[in-house]
Amino acid sequence: MSGSDTPSQTDVRKVALEAWLGRVLPGGPPSGLEPASADASFRRYFRLRVAGGTRIAMDAPPGKEDLGPYVQVAGILHDAGVNVPRVLARDDGQGFLLLTDLGDRQYLDALRAGADPDPLYRDAIAALVRIQSRTAAAAAILPPYDEGRLRAELDLFPAWFLERHLRLGLDDAERALIERSFVSLVAAALGQPRRLVHRDYHSRNLMVCADNPGILDFQDAVLGPQTYDLVSLLKDCYVVWPRERQLGWLRCYLGEAGRAGIGYPGDEARFLHDFDLMGLQRHLKVLGIFSRLWYRDGKAGYLADLPRVLDYVLEVTAARPALAELDAFLRGRVLPAFVAACSRGAGQP
């Protein structure tokens, strides 16, 4: 630190992290920390070089992030036989972890570079089946993905996307329609078999590894609907696959799940119905979350993903006759307002 640095200019937590690493690393302080990934939370990740390879240091500010769930879920997933970072050292008081490094090649990077998606997605499906079939006892201690949690997520859609981002004033009939839709979506989610749910099992949190995939960002895992992580994977907010390709991978999942003893109840039509409604719940929530990340947290990058997410919503409401009233509202009121919001640009949060 130079003499001209002030507390506001100095990254105090990074300085403390470097000092802690100097105490826990056999070779002493690292020569430098490189940012390893962006995150929508308050967590930060840094890559450091050590003898024989690299490590990841996590900075999770106490009071804003809790190390406990990360360490707990990492242990559950490791015991299930999937590839997650191992915890090498921890300091709960300061909010620091030292982890093994799963590399820097996301599924999304590989796909954009032209990698064959089939082996990647078959590996991700196989890992998901291991997670769902080998964690029943451990998952029971996780927070439930219950009515309150599902509903709180859905409520982000009118609050942050419709009213804040689109500047829509909703009348009583529209609010009643949204309420009926939310009640139906929550009931559909609660009717599914309950498994460990990663909650963000997608191309930015899956890493291309020798033991493929490496799985990141699992600390918010809950016990919830069986199709949720499949939606995250196959209706990814960052990359889109044609329906026929989705169906091929979904049938691959059904086959592997059946062999692992967690076959989905009912026929394929019921499974696809539940998958699509789970996707609708997730994507309505995500529209709210991505808007909130801008207006509350000043993170504009997710606004570019809103059109893709809204397309997922409209795809489901158009295909399911029971959602015709919601579809009409979205196309008649929401879509024109969204076009207007896109033309305004981000502006100021």
Task: Identify the notable features of this structure and list them briefly.
two-stranded antiparallel sheet; Aminoglycoside 3'-phosphotransferase, Chain: A, domain 2; Phosphorylase Kinase, domain 1; 349 residues; 13 helices; alpha+beta; 5-stranded antiparallel sheet
Explain the overall architecture.
This protein has 349 residues and is of the alpha+beta class. The chain folds into two domains: 12-100, Phosphorylase Kinase, domain 1 (2-Layer Sandwich), CATH 3.30.200; 107-344, Aminoglycoside phosphotransferase (APH), C-terminal lobe (Aminoglycoside 3'-phosphotransferase, Chain: A, domain 2). Helix content is 51%, strand content 11%. The protein is built from 13 helices and nine strands. The protein has a five-stranded antiparallel beta sheet with strand order 1-2-3-5-4, sandwiched between helices. The chain is globular, with a radius of gyration of 21 Å.
Q: What percent of residues adopt helix (DSSP H or I)?
A: 40-55%
Radius of gyration from CA coordinates:
21 Å
Number of helices: 13
Strand content: 5-15%
- Terminal CA distance reads 33 Å
Oligomer: single chain
CATH fold-type name of the largest domain: Aminoglycoside 3'-phosphotransferase, Chain: A, domain 2
The main sheet orders its strands as 1-2-3-5-4
DSSP strand count: 9
CATH architecture of the largest domain: Alpha-Beta Complex
Task: Kindly provide the name of the CATH class of the largest domain.
Answer: Alpha Beta
From N to C, what is the helix and strand string? HEEEHEEHHHHHHEEEEHHHHH
Tally of separate domains: 2
How would a crystallographer describe the biggest sheet?
5 strands, antiparallel
- Looking at CATH, the homologous superfamily of the largest domain is Aminoglycoside phosphotransferase (APH), C-terminal lobe
**Average of pLDDT:** 93
